[in-house]
Design goal:
The protein is of the alpha+beta class and 137 residues long. It has three helices and four strands, in the order αββββαα. A hairpin with a 3-residue loop joins strand 3 and strand 4. The radius of gyration is 18 Å and the shape is elongated.
Length: 137
């Protein structure tokens, strides 16, 4: 497992990429409804200075009702330039490494996503939906 605290600085670049909320007007006729929370993590680019990822959280219901919500962020981990050369970075599965080190790399970002989902879902006067501030993969 990669030591993120050693090979990357504590700084992260974080930027909102996409939010889409779609209300679904159809009345739900099912007695039971399940909330689906899915996360997708993709390594976008690896440069000399940083590794960039896109994390997307998608919420919807089974059966389809209420709303469909997607939030995506881009975040980058900045290499510690003095220690970067200790490792051959080719062939590393960065997505798996992030998942294995999710508390170190994703805690702040996933908390932001969870907060935004709560704010968006409460905007219609309903109780907010609080999703875990960690990966739902």
């Amino acid at each position: 497992m990669l030591d993120f605290n050693k090979y990357f600085t504590s700084d992260q670049e974080i930027s909102l990429q996409h939010i889409e909320y779609k209300a679904i007007d159809d009345q739900c006729t099912s007695e039971t409804v399940s909330l689906r929370c899915e996360d997708n993590l993709t390594c976008e680019t690896v440069t000399e200075d940083k590794i960039s990822f896109i994390i997307t959280r998608h919420l919807n219901f089974d059966p389809i009702c209420f709303f469909d919500l997607t939030i995506s962020y881009k975040f980058s981990l900045l290499f510690n330039k003095e220690l970067k050369k200790e490792i051959n970075w080719n062939g590393i599965d960065f997505e798996e490494e992030i998942k294995d080190n999710k508390d170190v790399c994703l805690g702040n970002l996933m908390s932001r996503i969870s907060l935004q989902i709560a704010q968006i879902t409460s905007s219609s006067g309903q109780m907010p939906i609080i999703t875990p501030p960690s990966l739902c993969c």
